[in-house]
Amino acid sequence: MPKFVYDFTEGNKDLKDLLGGKGANLAEMTNLGLPVPPGFTITADACRVYLEHGQEPPELREQVSQYLDALEAKMDKKLGQADGPLLVSVRSGAKFSMPGMMDTVLNIGLNDESVLGLAAQADGADSDGKADRFAWDSYRRLIQMFGKTVLGVDGEHFDEALEDVKKAKGTHNDLDLTAEDLRGLVESFKTIVEKEAGRTFPQDPREQMDLAIRAVFESWNGERAKLYRRQERIPNDLGTAVNICSMVFGNLGMDSGTGVAFTRDPASGQTGVYGDYLQNAQGEDVVAGIRNTVPLQDLENIDAASYAELTDIMAKLEHHYRDLCDIEFTIERGKLWMLQTRVGKRTAAAAFRIAVQLVDEGLIGPDEAVDRVTGAQLAQLMFPRFDENAKAEMIAKGMNASPGAASGKAVFDSYTAVKWSRSGEKVILIRRETNPDDLNGMIAAQGILTSRGGKTSHAAVVARGMGKTCVCGAESLDVDTKRRRMTAPNGVVVEEGDVVSVDGTSGAVYLGEVPVVASPVVEYFEGRLGADSPKADDLVKAVHRIMTWSDERRRLYVRANADTPEDAARARRFGAQGIGLCRTEHMFLGERRALIERLILAGDDDDERQAALGELLPMQRDDFIAIFTAMGGLPVTVRLLDPPLHEFLPDITELSVRVAVAEAKGEQNEGDLRLLQAVHKMHEANPMLGLRGVRLGLVVDGLFMMQVRAIAEAAAQVAKAGGVARVEIMVPLVGAVQELEIIRDEAQQVLDEVKERTGADVRSLIGTMIELPRAALTAGQIAEAAQFFSFGTNDLTQTTWGFSRDDVEGAFFSAYLDRGIFGVSPFETLDREGVGRLVQIATEEGRKTRPELKLGVCGEHGGDPDSVHFFHEVGLDYVSCSPFRVPVARLEAARAAIESAASDSR
Ligand code: ADP
Ligand code: MG
Ligand code: MG
Questions:
Q1: Which residues contact 33 (CB under 8 A, 6 or more apart)?
Q2: Using a 6 Å cutoff on CB, does residue 339 contact ligand 1?
Q3: Distance 770 CA to ligand 3 centre (A)
Q4: Is the CB of 91 under 6 A from ligand 1?
């Protein structure tokens, strides 16, 4: 019989797949002997069965009963019994943390009778006379949460009723409400449930629990949760576990409270105690920003013993998990209870700092440090930041919740954020505080600004998770969402549409757009800021150490795609070990366009064609000399002209109009007429599948060989001048070995001739791109004629799927993502199953023919973390990506090597 339920004493932290992160870590803490309220976890398997069949697995009810009995025995109380009731929370918790995306219901087990029992029980513990109030407050919270999450009642109804009572009392603070007020509120809430949900609030405690469990299962497929998963690339089929946890109460008076804490600063990575605490409150009050929290350090004055115990536990947890942990806790009348822990989310900068701190503290080694950071985080550190020297008007300062520099038009609700950003505007989402319904707007915005809540508020946690700039808790700002404006203390009023800038690294908020400068990490990669220089901060030092460890560990070489000497030079500074793709098409633009027109108009006129080519040759040669020189002897792969020729010609409509106008005036222009004819002739319905790449080289006499000659002569010249030139001539869009053979033979002739004539030591290879399925499938033959392969995964993805990228991405990709056909665009991350399989076949069969065959990739996937891991696994020699992605690829190549070594030794 499948086991669907685990007691907290039965699980451990490695069972996240089954118990979810929350459940696995509650079990781990229980087994470490930490004070965790007893409870049990229903597995994610049970959720998956429920989602598939629309009902709970038949064994579940029985198993839950069994574990509930055991819990009741341990607590010596019965769920919801009239006197001294056991109350529980029903908490969602998936493998990956999804803050606030799914549901949790507290105080399950309260009903009209047990609420009295709860009051009596609380009274016994302490006679502050507030027990009645506490019990009714807990009961109204249950009906509110249950009504909202289980019965689907719009939460505003409850909020309004609560506001009405407060208004009648003339207060804003929920602590001013008496037991009598709250009892009245319970009645109003019950009426709301009856009216809105069409049923009464269930009095049977077990029914409450079962319905809540089901609601948690279903919350996995709520819109918010789905959107979050898409954003975070969390698979849709994992399901969530459900934790049943006996209640402890932070709302029993001023000697009680609840809080969240981090073992290091999740924003900067600095060591120390970080967190927020709220007296006389229950769990979600802290994150919801209902009342203002105090910094965790203040707990030392409020309750020194609990503070000491908590900091002790935090140190213990950090040692145990060997990483930054975040924690939820509650203090019930001076007794500390741990309610949650997990390895905490952190900013990119914090991740790098913490990884090297932990190495220095002896908790982890360099391999693990490299694996603790990601290419995506490194990319974030390379974003520009605000120029400190710019004159900018700071209007407020909040907390630096998630770093980055963002400017945009102020918007005050998510709907507008989404709408404006769809029409291409940059926006900053400004809210008093955010809640899970704001997720869409947060994704759409450049940055997020709130006037309430700390570093653990919803806005801060979610923004950090998304790597989005966020300033939170800028309390001096008066945010008026209804009137769509905010007012700064100096009287400045920001209306919707006004531009503001937020600095997530410092917490500053500016009026208007602030100019940006390169980040210190980019300065470091550029070689303008040495890691040992006194100006380098600990972040630059951390990046330097991680990159050094990475380069020692990776097997893949990393090259860059670079078409100009400037790009080539930057690529080298960023650590590229060669150029994997030097495109030659831009070399035909500008004033050289005229020469292409001449080439095309030449038709059968051989002399005319040779003349045009003859003029192009020296220009191309100079282009290559500059690039080879910049690369100083590192290999450079030059791709012969790839795009359809007509791309270099004038627009057909424009030209037609010109010809027609001229004709009407009786001024026939012979050249334009012939050009128009040629453009007409070359017009293609599917240019990407038309006359391009090697096909062009085979049809337009002399074009490719002019390029080969320019490459060879440039290399010879560089060699003659005392340099080294290693060139790899790459033929695009080959589908059959015969195409390559013709070009290869001609090119070899040109190369030999130039080498002989100049006597220069030119090292050259001739190879091909693999970007058509036929090329991949006949790679064994193609390798007979190719000394290297470079996978052009952009085209290979287009041709494997039959997608025209420019057409499909806007048209239906979002529907495909929504419907789970793929989790991420195959143009972003290599589709391992399809396109990847072709890469694998070509790799194996190519190497069978020619063991020394050099293999690389030059599509955009070369800089995508997940794809880099694939290319490592499949055994390529190098990846090539844009210069700015080179550090990312270096890091990810190392992580791939470390991870595959780890899984080999397993
Ligand atoms: P989330 O995943 O959104 O954080 P949780 O399941 O952690 O949801 O619960 C929400 C809040 O309720 C948290 O602050 C948590 O500490 C609190 N909470 C959950 N279970 C209990 C319990 N048994 N006793 C007291 N507070 C609880
Ligand atoms: Mg929680
Ligand atoms: Mg291509």
A1: none
A2: yes
A3: 9
A4: yes
Q: How far is the CA of 260 from the centre of ligand 3 (A)?
A: 51
Q: Which of 231-240, 367-376, 541-550, 895-904 has the lowest mean pLDDT?
A: 231-240
If one residue of 90, 97, 101, 104 were mutated to test the ligand 1 pocket, choosing by the most ligand atoms within 8 A of its CB, it would be: 104
Backbone torsion region of residue 527, taken as left when φ is above 0, otherwise alpha when ψ lies between -120 and 50, otherwise beta: left
Does 100 contact ligand 1 (Cβ within 6 A)? yes
Catalytic residue among 458, 544, 861, 869: 458
DSSP state of 862: G
Question: What does the pLDDT average to over 399-420?
Answer: 92
Tens of pLDDT, residues 341-370: 999 989 899 999 999 999 999 999 999 999
Contacts 24+ apart (CB under 8 A), 646-650: 646/679, 646/682, 646/683, 646/684, 646/687, 647/585, 647/687, 648/588, 648/589, 648/593, 648/596, 648/597, 649/596, 649/597, 649/600, 649/675, 649/678, 649/679, 649/682, 650/675, 650/679
Atom of ligand 1 nearest to the CA of 243: 6
User: What pTM value is reported for the model?
Assistant: 0.83
The DSSP secondary structure of 250-292, one letter per residue, reads S-SSTT-EEEEEEEE-TTT--EEEEEEEEES--THHHHHTSS-
Binding site membership of 309 for ligand 1 (Cβ less than 6 Å): no
Please state, in angstroms and rounded to a whole number, the distance separating the CA atoms of residues 499 and 400: 20
Query: In whole angstroms, what is the distance from residue 523 CA to residue 504 CA?
Result: 20
Written as six digits, the tokens of 511 are: 């009026």
* Contact call for residues 87 and 119 (beta carbons, < 8 A): no
Give distance in angstroms: CA of 792 to centre of ligand 3. 5
Q: What are 849's two structure tokens?
A: 């023919």
pLDDT, position 228: 86
Question: Is 281 close to ligand 1, i.e. is its CB under 6 Å away?
Answer: no
Stretch 112-131: mean pLDDT, rounded? Answer: 78
The 10s digit of each residue's pLDDT in 10-44 is: 999 999 999 999 999 999 999 999 999 999 999 99
**Residue 858 appears among annotated catalytic residues:** yes
* Nearest alpha carbon, ligand 1 atom 22: 247
| Residue 895 to residue 563: CA distance in whole angstroms | 28
Nearest CA to ligand 1 atom 20: 89
Among 22, 71, 88, 91, residue to substitute to test ligand 1 (most atoms within 8 Å of Cβ): 91
Ligand nearest to the CA of 94: 1
Site of tokens 């974003």: 383
Q: Could you tell me which residues are beta bridge partners of residue 639?
A: 730
462 Cβ closer than 6 Å to some ligand 1 atom: no
| pLDDT value of position 126 | 47
Residue nearest to atom 6 of ligand 1 (CA): 91
Confidence class for position 127, pLDDT limits 50, 70, 90: very low
pLDDT in tens, 298-357: 999 999 999 999 999 999 999 999 999 999 999 999 999 999 999 998 989 999 999 999
Longest Cα separation, the chain? 107
| Tens of pLDDT, residues 744-753 | 999 999 999 9
Q: Spot the catalytic one: 582, 858, 861, 869.
A: 858
Residue whose CA is closest, atom 18 of ligand 1? 283
542: its two tokens: 């951390």
In the sheet with 335-343, reading across from the earlier edge strand, the strands are: 294-295, 271-279, 257-264, 325-332, 335-343
Determine whether 683 is an active site residue.
Answer: no
How many residues does this entry show for the chain? Answer: 906
Query: Residue 495: what are its φ and ψ, rounded to 5°?
Result: -95, 165
Average pLDDT over residues 866-883: 96
Ligand nearest to the CA of 692: 3
φ, ψ for residue 108, nearest 5 deg: -65, 135
Question: What pLDDT sits at residue 49?
Answer: 96
